Amino acid sequence: MDFKTAARFGVYFSKGYAEEIFRLLVNYKDISASEAASRLSLHIQTVQDFLEAMTSLGILSKKEVYEKKRPYFRYSLKKKKISLDIDLASLLEQKQPERKLSKKIRENKDSGARFTTARYDPYFSSVVIWIGEGRDRKERKINLTIPQGKFLFTGNP
User: Fold this and answer.
1) What is the Cα–Cα distance from 118 to 49, expressed in whole angstroms?
2) Is 90 exposed, middle or buried (0-12, 13-18, 19+ CB in 10 A)?
3) 92 to each of 88, 95, 97, 103, how far by Cα in Å?
């Protein structure tokens, strides 16, 4: 599993109503969003968004059902046990753009200055300097020309 998928899991699992919805899904073989919403006193759109997200993550399955009224979906558990596994070794295999890894910004911690690099080229585009103390502290931004930014970045004229 990648980090984006794990983040989606985390967002939905951290909801206050997630445990209650899963409890309903375990107790009943399948349930509709409106049934779950009425039993939990939640808005139907909240429950439907949660159920759709769990379906897209592969935890639930949904089936379209036709009754007297218009068709609707019923959701059921695909898995009775959910585990979250993230393969950290895959991070080593992912290639990062070299320019991101090769940048060396010359600033010390708490130096009172922040250097901003250009988006695509190896040079500084601006320097922010803080002057003063406490509430009287002011920020001054100095936009650099390309030759100035390249000189500060590489140290070569």
Assistant:
1) 40
2) exposed
3) 8, 8, 13, 19
Each residue's pLDDT tens digit, 37-90: 999 999 999 999 999 999 988 899 999 888 777 888 999 999 888 888 887 777
User: Going by CATH, does the domain composed of 3-77 fall within 1.10.10.10?
Assistant: yes
* φ and ψ of 39, to 5 deg: -70, -30
Tokens of 19: 């445990």
Sketch the domain layout of the chain as residue ranges.
3-77, 96-154
Q: How many CB atoms sit inside 10 A of residue 46's CB?
A: 16
DSSP string, 97-122: PHHHHH------TTSSEEEEE-SSSS
